[in-house]
Specification:
- Helices cover 64% and strands 13% of the residues.
- With 448 residues, it is of the alpha+beta class.
- The strands form 2 sheets. It has a 4-stranded antiparallel sheet, with no helix packed on it.
- Strand 5 and strand 6 form a beta hairpin.
- It is elongated, with a radius of gyration of 38 Å.
Length: 448
């Protein structure tokens, strides 16, 4: 039992050491921007690496499909030992050796498909389309990852600003508690007023603790998503520009820009070619075979050169080809139906993004006005409270309103910027205006 345990540990250690060089190591980013975080996530996240792997796999399929169009050359040889020579006696004392006791043969064989019902050409074209689809899928994957990073980024930024607001509120409440205690000492305030401010300070500390925890959690999520250990101070970009146009105009533009629509076009073409490829099994096949053969035996000759044409005509295959053609037609039909689903999804996304941005902008404008008004109201009530013209309850209400207004503005700003990014994504533009993934390098280049 002990030996088995040690063996298992040794195997696990060997696997760990072998996998370590290829593992992605989290890096430290100092005060990164959203663009830098997205670029780092693209270079480290497994979904992009998987998309790159699919591109390389599709490129290998292209080479494999093209190989069916190329000639195949083989060199073959044998060396055989027999128990004795095999000869034919021509006359007394004269014989002809047909098979020597030690015989060798060598040949150079060339085979070339001349006609296969165009199946090889269509298989190559399908492989190229699948490679293009893999590249478009990588584009879509990066866009989706950008949305995830942007959403998590703005959550972290909002939580950090929320902590700043809570710290400011706590300081204000502590100052007001000191004022209330001084007023109580001179008899201008009651014990109840002091108790209210102490309770308010305790509540502010509790809210600050919760905000710090939420901010740490949001930052940890962002670090895990982008593959970084320490991010430093997050720098929020300025307002994200949105595309101009009405809802209907943006929807029309999305149909021509979205990579999913380009992918669907390639899928339709590939499915149509697959139907033709299966029909090609009904056509005859013609193959040429050339051979240069050499042997030790002189019967019938020491060497010769031959050329053979091989014709195969399918007559009956039990309905296999017919069934495969029917399946290919149904695959084509399913891709055609997928177009309806994709169009509906894109229309829903554009509508949701357009309306969401309009709503988020209106909410942010309202939150900004509310913040300005609440700050002004707080300053007025605070001055009135110091001269005894406002009660503790009035100042507590003004403090609560100012805090809520600041919090609402922070959330509204983050939501507006994310909705702007989502709207750009929905219409097929780069989610970040200064980062076009179509111009970025993809998987390792290979032969086209």
């Amino acid at each position: 039992m002990c030996w088995r345990f040690l063996s298992s540990c040794g195997v696990l250690l060997a696997i760990t050491v072998a996998a370590a060089p290829g593992a992605t190591v989290a890096q430290e980013l100092e005060n990164p921007t959203l663009k830098e975080l997205v670029l780092h996530a693209i270079s480290t996240h497994e979904v992009v690496q998987k998309a790159d792997s699919e591109i390389r796999r599709a490129q290998a399929d292209v080479v494999l499909a093209r190989s069916a169009l190329m000639p195949r050359v083989e060199a073959n040889g044998t060396y055989t030992f027999y128990d004795s020579d095999l000869s034919v006696e021509l006359s007394p004392g004269e014989s002809f050796v047909i098979r020597p006791s030690q015989d060798f043969t060598a040949s150079l064989d060339l085979r070339q498909n001349l006609f296969t019902g165009l199946r090889a050409w269509r298989a190559r074209d399908i492989a190229k389309l699948n490679r293009d689809i893999a590249e478009l899928d990588r584009w879509t994957t990066i866009n989706d990852l950008t949305l995830d990073v942007a959403r998590t980024f703005y959550d972290a930024v909002a939580m950090a600003e929320w902590v700043d607001v809570r710290e400011t509120v706590l300081k204000e409440n502590e100052n007001q508690l000191k004022v209330a205690e001084r007023l109580f000492e001179v008899g201008e305030n009651s014990v109840a007023d002091v108790a209210r401010w102490r309770a308010q300070v305790a509540a502010a500390k509790q809210a600050l603790t919760v905000a710090v925890g939420d901010a740490a959690l949001a930052r940890s999520r962002l670090e895990r998503l982008v593959g970084a250990t320490e991010l430093g101070e997050l720098r929020s970009p300025g307002p994200i520009p949105i595309p101009a146009g009405t809802d209907e105009e943006l929807t029309t533009e999305a149909f021509g820009r979205r990579p999913e629509m380009l992918t669907l076009t390639h899928q339709l073409e590939a499915a149509g070619l697959w139907v033709k490829l299966e029909r090609g099994n009904w056509y005859p096949q013609l193959e040429a075979a050339g051979q240069y053969f050499q042997q030790k035996s002189g019967f019938p000759a020491n060497d010769w050169l031959s050329l053979t044409l091989i014709l195969k005509v399918p007559i009956y295959d039990g309905g296999v080809t017919k069934a495969n053609v029917a399946k290919a037609k149904e695959d084509l039909r399913q891709v055609e139906l997928l177009e309806q689903t994709l169009v509906r999804v894109i229309e829903d996304q554009v509508d949701s993004a357009y309306i969401g941005y309009e709503a988020a902008s209106a909410v942010f404008d309202a939150a900004s006005e509310r913040t300005e008004a609440s700050r002004l109201a707080y300053r007025q009530v605070e001055r009135a409270y110091r001269v005894g013209e406002a009660s503790t309850t009035d100042l507590l209400n003004a403090t609560t309103e100012a805090t809520d207004a600041e919090t609402s503005q922070i959330v509204a700003r983050a939501q507006r910027e994310y909705q702007a990014i989502f709207l750009r994504y929905a219409v097929g533009l780069p989610p970040l205006p200064d980062l076009d993934f179509r111009q970025m390098s993809q998987a390792d280049p290979q032969e086209n």
